[in-house]
């Protein structure tokens, strides 16, 4: 193009454009640079002179593809103005932004360029920053929302909001939180807003939000009022504390579990054994407050362990991670109690010792009791096992559950041969009726049974035995066991036999010479050998009297032997007690007359008949009356009375248990000293004053009388006052014999 | 009237003999159980005074034999013995003795009186 307007160059007026900040440039229709001012050259990164006369394509190879060229071309060819912001990447890689205004002029195009790189950079920075914030806003795990203060409408929410509450952004923006019922408790919202209005911010407000699906979520809500483009907005965040709450709840539960435990629980530092935590039970048990204990060490409360044992347990805990042991703890008040401790080593942020402390006072006491009762039982067992009688335990059917050692040695059967069977293994020698009677007493009447039986040893030899069997009843009164005690009385029987033999021997051997003395004296006195002079008669009477006395003594001995061997024979016959009293008094006529004693005999008229062994009554009366006579001083009085004593009547403090006859013998004698009263019926015993009164006496009379009355199921007792007299009472049951 | 005295102790039989000779016409003595039986048969007494503890045969045996003998069983027997136990007394009475005296406890005159009575009643 030859018509390049030189005017541009030549027109000095253009030079004024050089001072402009905007780039100005004229490109002719052949794309040659016709003019550019300094700013344009700067914008193009070229020397002003290097471009003039050159084409654009020449100077900027590849420019045809750029946006700028397209814009220029459009203006150049279409003859229309253009205005655009464009960036251009220079060959050195730098990018710059320009605002271009292109206008067609007759020569070509006029380009005005303004460097907007700075502005563009600032805009880009702002955009990036906004994007970052948005990303952060959305990436926050906490719920975030922006709400307008004036209308309460939600302006923006983040992704966590949607995730936490289930509402999408679109569902929420433009609505109020009230419309969405996000606050589970409206009152909470009011409180929240109140604080916000007052302080301009709320921090960690705990509340419950309601999700779209109706479920709730526990959050801490924080909010702050800020200005957004001149409008007051609330930026709020909500942190989901459901997990924290659960953890807190679990922790609380765990704590109350610990505190409700009846065992003491201690958490300790394994190095110092200082308490890190203790539960309520431990505080209660020890009497310390929790605060006190937390400043103490395990060693302060332990009183049952020395250093050696403690380090051995410590070593075990470190090695095995746990240990169980017993020791003693000391309470604040100083009392000591036994405990069982279970220790576990746990690793948390650091190692801890967890110990569970159980008070074993009761257990120890029980153990002690058990030990003692076991000991006691052992003693009983030993005693039973070692007893020299057979001891047999059977069930209610009589099946043997236990026998002691003696049972085996006496019967010759081993325990195994007896257990599980009945006692008929070695028994069963008695008539059938005997055993029927025995079972009736034991099983039906549930009463103890005693008898003398004959049993048989394993080798066939028989032996005499005394058995005592007692039923053991349960709570309902039913027989549960029988306990039998069996004693070998073969020896005792032999002794009995020997005694009987002695009785027989005595009666013959002693009585024969005595009879000779009696009879010959009697004949001499009676004149069979001729008349005796007074002196001779007196002497023979003395011999006869002494012989009679000896006969009485022999009779007494024999009575006692019979009583003691149980061989006393009872022949109950109707007895006329009045007559018997009279005869007995008659026997003592001599001393009665000599001492001038007043005798009073009072026998109740129409006395009911008494059936009793007459010899027994005779011996009793004889003893009581002769004693009364003997121990009553001269001119005294002896009163004998026989009367009826109906069942239930009370005589001198005693009640007649059945219809009886009462014989009482009262004297005004020397009496029985108080100290001797409980021994007066003892064999060979004589009261002190009686011995002084009469040195002759064998101390057998009252003993015998008492035994005899007992044999007749009667009672003998007395009332006495020393120096004043004694009354003996004999109560004889009428029908017992 | 004939009286047989069975008594091994001479010191006692002598007293009985002397006393009873004044009561009966004729008195015979036997010193043991066997003699008692033979004398009872040969002598045919009206009453027998019998001791129990005797050599050769006991008084109980003698009593049994006498009571089994048709000719002798009606003869009253009075036991005069120093066996004083109840069972002895019962046994002798059961075997047919008419009375029982424990020697040492009774005066000789009491026994003699009893025999006299028996003789009177058995006439």
Alpha-carbon Rg of chain A, integer: 68 Å
> Per DSSP, what share of the residues of chain B sits in E-state strands of 2 or more residues?
15-25%
Span of the ends, CA to CA of chain A: 180 Å
CATH topology of chain B: Rossmann fold
Largest inter-chain contact set: A-B, 25 and 21 residues
CATH class of chain B: Alpha Beta
Give the number of helices of chain A: 27
CATH homologous superfamily grouping of chain B:
Response regulator
Domains counted in the coordinates of chain B: how many?
A: 1
Please tell me the overall pLDDT of chain A.
87
Q: Give the beta-strand count of chain B.
A: 5
Strand content bin of chain A: 25-35%
Which strand order does the major sheet of chain A show?
Answer: 2-1-5-4-3
Largest sheet of chain B: 5 strands, parallel
The end-to-end distance of chain B, rounded to whole angstroms, is 9 Å
Strand order of the largest sheet of chain B: 2-1-3-4-5
Provide the CATH topology of the largest domain in chain A.
Heat Shock Protein 90
- The CATH class of the largest domain in chain A is Alpha Beta
Instruction: Indicate the overall shape of chain B.
Output: globular
**Which sheet architecture does the biggest sheet of chain A show?**
5 strands, antiparallel
